[in-house]
Fold this protein.
Amino acid sequence: MSEGELLDRIKRLLADIEIDKVKDAVEEALKAGIPAIRIIEEGLAEGMRIVGDRFEKGEYFLAELVAAGETFKEAMEVLRPKLMEEGSTVKKLGKVVIGTVRGDLHDIGKSIVATMLESAGFEVYDLGVDVSPEEFVRKAKEVNADIVAMSALLTTTMIEMKNVIEELKKAGIRDKVKVIIGGAPVTEEFAKEIGADAYAEDAVKAVEVCKRLVGGS
Ligand code: B1M
């Protein structure tokens, strides 16, 4: 099978919730020499997009969303070590506190961004999901963070990003940290509107932007 066919197969298997076959297909793609980040972005994430569309149309239900999420995470267990190898872990570029905002339980994209940042040489503190503004601020102060990175997948939780920025201001550390935001419903305009320093549409861009924010490239 060609690289395109292998990636397409991963996409289709995840989209069709063929959960038993996804991990094997991912391993096959790795064996064929396809970089982990391409397997994620062009295979799994594309499949996940289809799952989301089918859910929106009422063709899939919560059970399918959960199964697809779990399958993606299992595949990430195979891919995470490869992602780390593909990055350059030599120098420490800065400290990033990352999390999915309050009320939001989606963690797949956020975890990919966290892994990519770590493999690029950032020291990453991943607070997980449903993170309150107070928790973001407490951790940022504790580790003397350079960057606070937030993810949101729900339109209803995007507003929490603004609340985190307000909390950083209240704590008197807004000028000491850079703020980057991302996640499917988030846009560049929204980032500007709430006073974030940057927006990134995917994990590869997030690494580029974070390097720029700390003056690394
Ligand atoms: Co949910 N869900 N979900 N879900 N879910 C969406 C987001 C939705 C768009 C599906 C749909 O209707 N089409 C919809 C939101 C609608 C909206 O707000 N407009 C939705 C809904 C409605 C819900 C529930 C409310 C469903 C319900 O209960 N009735 C519920 C909410 C729970 C909650 O959070 N409180 C819910 C629950 C779930 C599951 C738990 C079942 C599961 C998540 C499992 C998990 O994360 N552990 C789930 C899933 C899997 C999805 C979809 C299908 C896939 C999300 C995903 O993992 N994508 C999603 C549909 C979709 O997004 N099209 C959907 C793959 C991942 C790699 O992409 O997260 O976008 P993504 O991350 C990308 C970029 O966005 C970016 O980089 C990543 C990698 O390239 N990025 C950043 C992300 N964070 C970044 C941060 C950055 C920079 C870039 O800087 C800091």
User: Anything to note?
Assistant: The chain has two domains: 3-86, 95-213. The pocket of CO-5-methoxybenzimidazolylcobamide is lined by residues 41, 45, 48-49, 51-52, 55-56, 62, 65-66, 68-69, 103-110, 112-113, 149-151, 153-156, 180-185, 200, 202-203, 206 (CB under 6 Å). The chain has a mean pLDDT of 94. The chain has nine helices and five strands.
